[in-house]
Amino acid sequence: MDTATSVTIDDVRAAAARLDGIAHRTPVLTSRILDERAGAEVFVKCENLQRVGAFKFRGAYNAIALLSPEQRARGVAAYSSGNHAQAVALAARELGTSAVILMPEDAPRSKRAATAGYGAEVVTYDRYTEDRTALARALADERGLALIPPYDHPDVIAGQGTAALELLAETGELDALLVPVGGGGLLAGTAIAATSVHPAIRVIGVEPESGDDTKRSLEAGERVTIPVPRTIADGQALPTPGELTFAINRRLADGVVLVSDAEIVEAMRFAFEYLKVVIEPSGATPLAALLSGRLDAAPRRVGLIASGGNVDAQRFTDLLSGS
Prior knowledge:
Elements: H1 9-19, E1 28-29, H2 32-38, E2 41-46, H3 56-65, H4 69-74, E3 76-79, H5 83-94, E4 99-104, H6 109-117, E5 121-125, H7 132-143, E6 146-147, H8 154-171, E7 176-180, H9 185-197, E8 202-208, H10 213-220, H11 243-252, E9 256-259, H12 261-275, H13 281-291, E10 301-306, H14 313-321
Parallel strand pairs: 2-10, 3-4, 3-6, 4-5, 7-8, 7-10, 8-9
Antiparallel strand pairs: 1-2
């Protein structure tokens, strides 16, 4: 199978039906001040208000729901810096199975506590010296668990694409759609959904400057590995894009733009002051790109996905105060 066509709009629509009544249909916010600053009509899809505080619940639930009863009876495993961890933990609980989650030692305390709070067993590792994928596969094999990766899985990608499907159903045709990029699952799902509904739309990823692995990979035409990034956008601190996600994004996405940590903080501040919502650093990167004028051709109507809101109060205030 051609990996770039292994997830289709039919898969995304099936995931949407599966998630109906389970995932929140998150609101789409608009702001006159944001429109003036961006020079465009802007629509913000608030996945920070999704269950577990992030879009990740969509893909995790879809993937676990599609496991066989026998697989669900044995349990699932996952690896994540936080949002996918929480999503798998909650989805596993909702679907009557157990979860073991591999999380980096320096994951935000709030995300680790929430993951355990949903009933998952948390196992930690050092993200700077250990290979989380290899560790998770070994853990899953040892315990007989189904591994639910955070992005490089067709059912996860299909689930993530449902956010864009909802956004476009509400807004109608958009010129561009901005999406945070970590491993590339949200960008891939969004690109499949958006270009199927509106073929002329530009789907653009946004990465932190120090974590530009997807941008480099798209420019090189092959997956590039960089040192593990050190950025406030912990959900995007990855060294290389996924294999399946890269194949999809190489075909369907319109490139990646970069933002600085300082621009991310200013976007978080703007969202808090003018949109009245809290967005975590990774979720604020699309807004940062828009406010900083990172797009080459200014769109007339643009959507962005605020992918998560899982930042604790102390870190939020520290970031905005420059501490």
